[in-house]
């Protein structure tokens, strides 16, 4: 006996034909990846999806600003690491990367 599983219905957009054919250029293309237009002449087929969901979301994000803030974050992080290694931070742990700190590694070289 086979258990009957109720699978969730797939979205209707999956059943829509994704490829379009430009008669003028005799060119078949996927309008989701050409922003809804023929890549040769710019003809826009009716009802074509302009982009898949993830690409529509990715197109809405301004990646320049995201990269700029990410770069600023990385620079602040590097600055904190360097300030910590040179002992400029008041919180201590300043002599982690300093081999010349007295009494730790070079204690055997005392005279
Ligand atoms: Zn075309």
Describe the structure.
- The chain is mainly alpha-helical and 111 residues long.
- It contains two helices and two strands.
- The protein has two domains: 17-61, no CATH class; 62-95.
- Helix content is 28%, strand content 5%.
- Strands 1-2 form a two-stranded antiparallel ribbon.
- β1 and β2 form a beta hairpin.
- The model is unreliable at 103-107 (pLDDT under 50).
- The site of zinc ion has 8 residues, from loops.
Summary?
The chain is mostly helical. The chain has helices spanning 53-60, 63-85; strands at residues 20-22, 27-29.
Binned strand content: 5-15%
Radius of gyration, in angstroms, nearest whole number = 30 Å
The number of strands is: 2
Uncertain residue segments: 103-107
- Spatially, the strands of the biggest sheet line up as 1-2
Instruction: State the secondary-structure class.
Output: mainly alpha
From N to C, what is the helix and strand string? EEHH
């Amino acid at each position: 006996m086979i258990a009957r599983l109720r699978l969730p219905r797939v979205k209707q957009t999956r059943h829509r034909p994704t490829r379009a054919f430009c008669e003028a250029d005799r060119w078949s293309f996927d309008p989701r990846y050409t922003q809804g237009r023929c890549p040769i002449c710019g003809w826009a087929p009716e009802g074509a999806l302009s982009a898949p969901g993830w690409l529509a979301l990715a197109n809405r994000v301004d990646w320049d600003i995201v990269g700029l803030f990410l770069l600023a974050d990385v620079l602040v992080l590097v600055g904190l690491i360097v300030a910590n290694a040179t002992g400029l931070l008041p919180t201590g742990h300043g002599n982690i990367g300093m081999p010349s700190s007295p009494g730790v590694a070079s204690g055997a070289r005392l005279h």
